[in-house]
From TrEMBL:
Keywords: Kinase, Membrane, Phosphoprotein, Transferase, Transmembrane, Transmembrane helix, Two-component regulatory system. This is histidine kinase. GO terms for cellular component: plasma membrane. It catalyses: ATP + protein L-histidine = ADP + protein N-phospho-L-histidine. The chain holds residues 87 to 347 of 347 of the full protein. GO terms for biological process: cellular response to phosphate starvation. Residues 41-261 form the Histidine kinase domain. It is an enzyme of class 2 (transferase). It comes from Ichthyenterobacterium magnum. Its EC number is 2.7.13.3.
Length: 261
């Protein structure tokens, strides 16, 4: 009797060991796939602007350099391409840090009303180019204090508002609102009346490099990383982010933050 029990235990243990090993190998395989896909995406993203810059430089070397007007135009375009490269590399750097959990939060108490206002000030020009009105339905004299990493939340607000401008319609609006929730939380909403997102694309929105319209977005100069950075930052705060959208009607991105006591 004891022998059979022992045998049974042993078999069970061997089975468990085999299951664990299999799981470990599966995990490693998934990780390897993920790494390959990431590298593939990165090189793809870098290729376009790199070839653009090279194209302008080669044309200059080919003789265009002798014409002052043309050379200035081409140098400007090459510089634009480099700016885009820097922007992508910065986003990649940020996403890598966020994904390996290498980015510690610098929590402080600050007035979110003031932060929204300063992001609006920075993006006013960009919005006015598309005649988009930035609206903020808050009383500037009534501060709302939150506990969060101010710099990262500034980035979240910037990414969301920039998107609402990029994917917004001409003469449209972007509205930011802040509302108290129960349990000492606030919810910050960024709403636009732009192109919206279809139900099929909505679930994939926060994936790295995901874009609804590859060519259209590229014209707008995005990296497809903005929303995944936003999601990582909010999740690092142990907060939530939501999106609601309707095609041709508009989108609303919202996230929660902890109110300072
Ligand atoms: P990108 O650099 O392409 O803007 P994001 O990660 O910020 O990358 O956004 C991913 C995609 O989600 C965009 O390419 C766009 O198709 C869609 N998107 C993001 N924000 C909005 C919005 N406010 N309205 C409509 N579509 C949006």
């Amino acid at each position: 009797q004891p022998i059979t029990t022992d045998m049974a235990t042993l078999t069970e243990e061997i089975d468990k060991y085999a299951r664990d090993k299999k799981l470990e190998i599966e995990t490693l395989k998934v990780r390897e796939e993920y790494r390959k896909e990431f590298l593939g995406n990165v090189s793809h993203e870098l290729k376009t602007p790199l070839f653009t810059v090279q194209g302008y430089l080669l044309t200059l070397l080919d003789g265009a350099i002798d014409d002052k007007n043309v050379s200035e135009k081409y140098l400007n375009r090459a510089n634009k391409g480099l700016e885009r490269l820097i922007y992508i590399v910065k986003d990649l750097d940020m996403i890598t840090k966020l994904e390996v959990g290498d980015l510690s939060l610098n929590l402080e108490t600050f007035n979110i009303v003031e932060l929204v206002q300063s992001v609006f000030d920075l993006l006013e020009m960009k919005a006015s180019k598309k005649k988009i009105t930035l609206m903020f339905d808050m009383d500037y004299n009534s501060p709302v204090y939150v506990n969060a990493d101010k710099e990262r939340i500034q980035q979240v607000l910037t990414n969301l508002i920039v998107n609402s401008i990029k994917y917004g319609r001409e003469k449209g609006t972007t509205e930011v609102s802040i509302e108290n929730l129960i349990k000492n939380k606030v919810i910050i909403r960024v709403t636009d009346n732009g192109e919206g997102i279809s139900d099929t694309n909505l679930p994939r929105l926060f994936e790295r490099f995901f874009r609804v319209d590859k060519s259209g977005s590229r014209k707008e100069g995005g990296s497809g990383l903005g929303l995944s950075i936003v999601k990582h930052i909010i999740e690092a705060h142990e907060e939530k982010i939501y999106v609601e959208s309707e095609l041709d009607v508009g989108s609303e991105f919202s996230f929660t933050l902890e109110k300072a006591k």
